[in-house]
């Protein structure tokens, strides 16, 4: 079984790997990146495909997936798993390792730092003789606004 690599680890790639991706700056890639630049929350590849098409762009869904994967590899997008198991993407604004707090109702997301989680992950790995520990933590809940709306509809 292949080990899973969190999206944030792509930022640790060399400048050469990053620049080789930049050389493939196609019209389709620019179109998807422009859509990423205008959205704040996480969205699926299908959402990006629809947004690009609504704006008059012509990019196949398979190409959108490939572009998002390459952006994940370079650390230019954050990727989380939605409640339905689908990968969700948004432009990454952090330069270092971080985690996410996601609203299950509206999709709002916040970057969070969790030093205690970092120490815990290293300790758990070290206790079993592992090094170079990688992990992904996603916290989900209801944001303050959705909590108020749910309470108001009861």
Automatic annotation (TrEMBL):
Residues 1-29 are annotated as: Disordered. InterPro entries: FUR, Fur_C, WH-like_DNA-bd_sf, WH_DNA-bd_sf. Its main location: cytoplasm. It comes from the Bacteria. Zn(2+) binds at residues 103, 106, 143, 146. It is found in: Cytoplasm. Its cofactor is Zn(2+); Mn(2+); Fe(2+). Keywords: Cytoplasm, DNA-binding, Iron, Metal-binding, Repressor, Transcription, Transcription regulation, Zinc. GO terms for biological process: negative regulation of DNA-templated transcription; regulation of secondary metabolite biosynthetic process. Residues 1-25 have a biased composition (Basic and acidic residues). GO terms for molecular function: DNA-binding transcription factor activity; transcription cis-regulatory region binding; zinc ion binding. Fe cation binds at residues 97, 118, 135. GO terms for cellular component: cytosol. Binds 1 zinc ion per subunit. The keyword Transcription applies. Homodimer. PANTHER family: FERRIC UPTAKE REGULATION PROTEIN (PTHR33202:SF2), ZINC UPTAKE REGULATION PROTEIN (PTHR33202). Belongs to the Fur family. This is Transcriptional repressor. It comes from Rothia koreensis. The lineage of its organism: Bacteria, Bacillati, Actinomycetota, Actinomycetes, Micrococcales.
């Amino acid at each position: 079984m292949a080990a899973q690599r969190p999206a944030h680890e792509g930022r640790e790639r060399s400048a050469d790997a990053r620049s080789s991706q930049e050389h493939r700056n196609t019209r389709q890639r620019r179109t998807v990146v422009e859509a990423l630049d205008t959205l704040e929350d996480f969205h699926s590849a299908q959402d990006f495909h629809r947004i690009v098409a609504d704006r008059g762009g012509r990019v196949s869904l398979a190409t959108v997936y490939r572009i998002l994967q390459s952006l994940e590899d370079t650390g230019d997008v954050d990727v989380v798993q939605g409640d339905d198991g689908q990968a969700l993407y948004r432009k990454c604004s952090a330069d270092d390792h971080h985690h996410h707090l996601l609203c299950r109702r509206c999709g709002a997301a916040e970057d969070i730092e969790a030093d205690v989680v970092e120490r815990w992950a290293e300790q758990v790995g070290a206790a079993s003789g592992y090094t170079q520990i990688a992990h992904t933590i996603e916290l989900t809940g209801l944001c303050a606004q959705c909590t108020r709306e749910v309470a108001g509809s009861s």
